[in-house]
Write a structure and sequence with these properties.
15 helices; about 50% helix; 5-stranded mixed β-sheet
């Protein structure tokens, strides 16, 4: 990050739900100039920092960091949102308290902002649209838990409910509930039906939002990628140009191995699982579809099958993760280039004709 020579003060903010601890440090001498606290409310933060000379303000990522960082930037300040999980001086401090954390953030921001592992928040409009998808995810999770509860309760009485889709579970299960369990489970079935209707409404809203983001039309032609995954991908990344290469998206979403190199030792580790958990999970679902019985022949499927054929422990799981990572890279490439998806792009370059052409 380019140094701003006009900045004379560095501010560390330790944000909590009600109060935010403030520590102001001189950029030149490192001396603590001011300490105090401000209420964690928009009005209070605006009054505290409006009209002040441009400052470098450092705060940790958290519930309040999106709106607070946007507000402080609107007031003309340079804002750094730190990934505290990667800053040992913050999360690993044995004498952790608000005043100490605020001062440490300010001093790290003064010395070298790269030590803070800066996080970039998405825009307010993208955050609002992404909230629709996250709310749908919570509805689906609640419905799944309630369905499991109903099935488990019936099994405990020596009966079983028929297999059916979650969409029609409430209707199908109502007639199969043992009479003695109806007073307990009928209200649960009513809630499941309500959640199913709410999920349908969320799906319609997501379809509408996907049309508003025209770039999703470049992504959905991939078999297994629907409006939900395409829209989530666009909203989470928001600005594709911030990635130097499409391959960098794989690391951004946590699809690369963690490293623990020391001397000659470099043990194989699991993937980092950093980045957005929901998007990573959706891409894994897409990978399962691509490699599953309903998936069609394409470069992605062939790539995953080659990995699965290597055998070994967890070969199929490794194939799914590898396809999810490759899918994330492919989606970014289509986004930035505007190219039309070709399911056999790699096969054509290698001279390997698609199966339908071989059969012809």
């Amino acid at each position: 990050m380019r140094e701003d020579s006009s900045v004379k003060l560095v501010v560390g903010l330790d944000v909590s739900d009600k109060w935010t601890q403030v520590c102001v440090v001189s950029m030149d001498s490192g001396e603590v100039i001011e300490e105090g606290r401000v209420r964690t409310r928009k009005v209070a933060v605006r009054e505290r920092f409006a009209g002040r000379p441009r400052m470098r303000i450092v705060l940790e990522v958290g519930t309040h960091s999106p709106w607070m960082s946007r507000l402080l930037e609107e007031l003309g300040h340079e804002v750094i949102v730190a990934n505290a999980a990667k800053v040992g001086l913050i999360h690993g401090n044995s004498r952790k308290r608000d005043r100490t954390d605020a001062e440490n953030l300010a001093r790290l921001g003064r010395v070298d902002p790269k030590l803070l592992h800066r996080i970039r928040h998405r825009s307010q409009s993208a955050q609002e649209d992404l909230a629709v998808i996250r709310s749908r995810d919570q509805l689906v999770r609640c419905r799944s838990q309630l369905i499991s509860h109903v099935r488990g309760s019936v099994k405990a009485m020596g009966s079983r409910l028929p297999s059916c889709s979650t969409e029609c579970f409430a209707r199908r299960a109502a007639a199969e509930i043992p009479q003695g369990l109806k007073p307990a489970l009928d209200p649960i079935l009513a809630q499941i039906a309500t959640l199913t209707q709410a999920i349908r409404e969320s799906d319609r809203r997501i379809e509408q939002l996907a049309k508003q983001y025209g770039v999703t039309e470049l992504l959905v032609p991939i078999r297994g990628v629907g409006a939900l995954t395409a829209l989530t991908y666009v909203l989470v990344l928001e600005d594709p140009t911030r990635f130097a290469t499409s391959r960098a998206v794989g690391a951004y979403l946590g699809y690369v191995r963690r490293l623990d190199e020391s001397g000659e030792s470099s043990p194989p580790l699991r993937i980092s699982k950093e980045g957005d958990e929901l998007l990573r999970r959706l891409l894994v679902h897409c990978a399962h579809y691509i490699l599953g019985p309903f998936g069609e022949d394409c470069d992605l499927r062939r790539f995953g099958e080659r990995i699965a054929r290597r055998g070994g422990s967890f070969a199929k799981k490794k194939a799914v993760v590898a396809v999810a990572r490759k899918l994330a890279v492919l989606l970014h490439h289509l986004w930035v280039t505007g190219e039309v998806y070709d399911p056999f792009y790699t096969a054509r370059r290698k001279g390997e004709a698609p199966q339908e052409e071989d059969a012809a």
